[in-house]
Task: structure prediction
Amino acid sequence: MTYNFHDEMNKPERLVGGHRLCAGCGASVAVRGVLRALEEGDRAVVANATSCLEVSSFMYPYTAYEDSYIHSAFENAGATIGGVEAAYRVMKKKGKIDETFKFIAFGGDGGTYDIGLQSLSGAMERGHDMVYVCYDNEAYMNTGIQRSSSTPRFTDATTSPAGTVEPGKRQNKKNLTEILAAHDIPYAAQTTFWGNFKDLHEKSHKAIYTEGPAFLNVLSPCPRGWRYDPADLAEICKLAVNTCVWPLYEIEEGTWKLNYEPRKKVPVVEFLKRQGRFAHMFEPGNEWMIEESQKYVDQQWEKLLKKCR
Result:
């Protein structure tokens, strides 16, 4: 792909202002970044699972999207966008539609890792020409910051509270990107926003313009649930990447590729201490939690390196 990156970043917005997402929210940055990868002249149909993003960007009869928009239920965004794509193919074959449309679904981790996984899995298996984007903020933020299967171990959430009896969530985060890659789809990738957004943009374009089903998992911090200063959004993402908590990689036609390897891994503690959801890990006697977190990240990183090499 050859393009002028400056021009790409200055394209007209397809998610416009006026929505009600929080300052410092990763969801809006993820959506803007993905939709910016659409080529001029191409239109999109966007499906959105019930989520923070949906309730904040769609207030009937108004929407913040410039493209066609469908609010689906929590559990069926994958089936919804797959059905629209199938109808489009039929109408295109009959000559009833001339324009080029792309089909993109957005869902949070609750609607993707958990409630919507069966619908997403089915859409991937059927081979629809679509992109499913998970904006992963690692909890059910819209309904009160409850833990999800995406929530990291030791996180203090409302349904996994940290205290004298429990250390926070006891289970490690589910690796959904690998689960989707196991569907043998043409393209799956992990990304986030840091630096100049080049990684997010290139992977979004590749996902949208790869024929067949594609999956993007975008780490999208939440200032309320993660408890960080909204101005620190990019810094939190940068720490996630440089600590290898959230590696940047892609799987294209079965080939694993690491997109970024830190010259020197930053200790996981630097990522943890910037977020209030991990504050209890720094209390006297809880040092073992930090050690376990580092150990887990190191193990997962080594496994990824082997797959990519």
Observations:
- The first strand starts at residue 43 and ends at 48.
